[in-house]
């Protein structure tokens, strides 16, 4: 049975609203969600990277996932919106507070760097505006080889007809370059009504140019690959690459831990 995930649910400061979103996600059948903290630096003033709030301080008791006997798993994620290369801070200790690290580049140069250089887990594709650059296959293949995944979020398409056109156009452009591989589908939901069930999301993905098989993987096994990549990134010194086919544990690992991760541990 597939384990469904939504790795981009907007963090909401209002606890009641946040609880409603988490309960809806569990009711729809998502076993894992990630609360997304967005960090958008500006040149005008120095800004502090947000600190994630422990989930037990936000919700007293996590809801049980529909069709399963265990509660939903809630992770924390940081997304850095980059308009300049200085906005990403390699090896920043603040990044280690989060389970997942994503960037949203706003130029072709930054997109290339995110694909080829940055130690991250997810590259977000803008969905609320026309892409300011064209996707090129070489950096996209480089990101795929490094175990980095691309994210397409759908909630903007629900809010506005213009954003719906941008979402479909930008997603189709990405699929033409990556051939539907290493893509995750997320909601980026800001309220419970913007969440959709896993099978509704896979049907929506067909509009983005994904095949039926790739669409199902985009809300399940590819998300798990992103989590495995994040775990090894945070554990080992340097980037440890995982592939989508390594759903249970990276090849050559023992008890789910890579040899490189074991070498990184102090003796």
Element layout with pairings:
Elements: E1 4-10, H1 15-28, E2 30-39, H2 55-58, E3 73-82, E4 100-105, H3 108-116, E5 122-124, H4 137-145, E6 149-153, H5 155-159, H6 161-178, E7 183-186, H7 198-205, H8 212-217, H9 221-235, H10 259-264
Parallel strand pairs: 1-2, 2-3, 3-4, 4-5, 5-6, 6-7
Helix pairs in contact: 3-4
Descriptive overview:
This protein is 35% helix and 17% strand. With 267 residues, the protein is of the alpha/beta class. Strands 1-2-3-4-5-6-7 form a 7-stranded parallel sheet, sandwiched between helices. α1 (15-28) links the parallel β1 and β2 (30-39). The radius of gyration is 18 Å and the shape is globular. Mean pLDDT is 86; it is low at 237-267.
Output the keywords.
10 helices, alpha/beta, nucleus, 7 strands
Give a summary of the structure in a few sentences.
Pfam families: RNase_P_p30. Helix content is 35%, strand content 17%. It has helices at 15-28, 55-58, 108-116, 137-145, 155-159, 161-178, 198-205, 212-217, 221-235, 259-264; strands at residues 4-10, 30-39, 73-82, 100-105, 122-124, 149-153, 183-186.
Indicate the structural class.
Answer: alpha/beta
Give unreliable regions as ranges: 237-267
First-residue to last-residue Cα separation? 39 Å
Number of strands: 7
Helix content: 25-40%
Give the CA-based shape: globular
Number of domains: 1
* Strand order in the sheet with the most strands: 1-2-3-4-5-6-7
List the total number of helices: 10
Beta content comes to 15-25%
Order of helices and strands: EHEHEEHEHEHHEHHHH
Rg result? 18 Å
